[in-house]
Prior knowledge:
It is a single chain. The protein is α/β, with parallel strands linked by helices. The chain is 32% helix and 20% strand. The protein has a six-stranded parallel β-sheet with strand order 3-2-1-4-5-6, sandwiched between helices. The chain starts with a helix and ends with a helix. The mean pLDDT is 81.
Amino acid sequence: LEKKTIKKSSFNFIVKNFKYKNKRIKNKNIDFLIYYRNHKNKKKFFPFNLINNLIKEGFKINIIGDRLNIPNIKNHGFLSNKKLNKLQLRAKFTIFSQENLYSIFTLECISNNVLVLINKTNKYKINFFKKRFIKLDFQNLKELKKLHNIYKNR
Length: 154
């Protein structure tokens, strides 16, 4: 783009005008709410191993979107935005979708006080809502165990 056009334009307008609810919800009984899409371009980015490790650590995993056939998770399927918001209000964490740091799902989670996990190995620059992201090494089980206390201390 030309410099003149850049000066006249507004970028990241969705993120800049975004507001999240400051209200703390006490009844957060879903540990993880994760959006899963069974698509050839997205499947290679989905953290299947992380989900299995979280289940082993005793976390409650809830999936929205396409069905994920892993034991001990709850699949909700595709939901209306109203039902999705209700689930997000009850969720503590979600996992960042590697193809888009500020996807609509992630922004809605942030709006509902859901913390977003991001893998330390990813070199994404977090420009907005820095306090809502938690960087962890997804391969390190000791770091995953710390998640039990992280939400309580926020």
